[in-house]
Specification:
Elements (H helix, E strand, L loop, with lengths): L13 H14 L3 H8 L3 H12 L7 E2 L2 E2 L19 E8 L2 E7 L1
């Protein structure tokens, strides 16, 4: 494997992060000392350790955040009675507001 110089703004593959995490496990160093030695941020290391340990393949990583996932929790009220009125306003910033009303 060819070593390449990683600097600020460079991107590592999932495979490269797995290798770095294995090196950390075998290094005997704490996270801060390891990150200084490898010239990586501890925040990135923790983030990738979390992503890879969750069984995530990393494909949904976009920019610096995970892409949102939708989980259907089912109906709010399973009883046949009338549904209560629900109103949700979300300020998205820059003058944009999302307003949802049910009922």
């Amino acid at each position: 494997m060819v070593e390449r110089n990683k600097g600020k703004g460079s991107r590592r593959s999932r495979h490269e992060w797995r290798i770095l995490l294995a090196k950390l496990d075998n290094s005997g160093l704490g996270v801060d000392a390891f990150c200084r030695r490898e010239e990586i941020s501890s925040a990135s290391l923790y983030r990738w350790r979390n992503l890879l340990s969750d069984g995530c393949d990393g494909s949904e990583v976009a920019g610096s955040d995970r892409a949102p996932a939708f989980v259907d929790l089912g109906p709010l009220n399973s009883a046949p009675s009338p549904q209560p009125r629900i109103e949700l306003k979300l300020d998205l910033g820059h003058g944009l507001t999302l307003h949802l009303v049910r009922g």
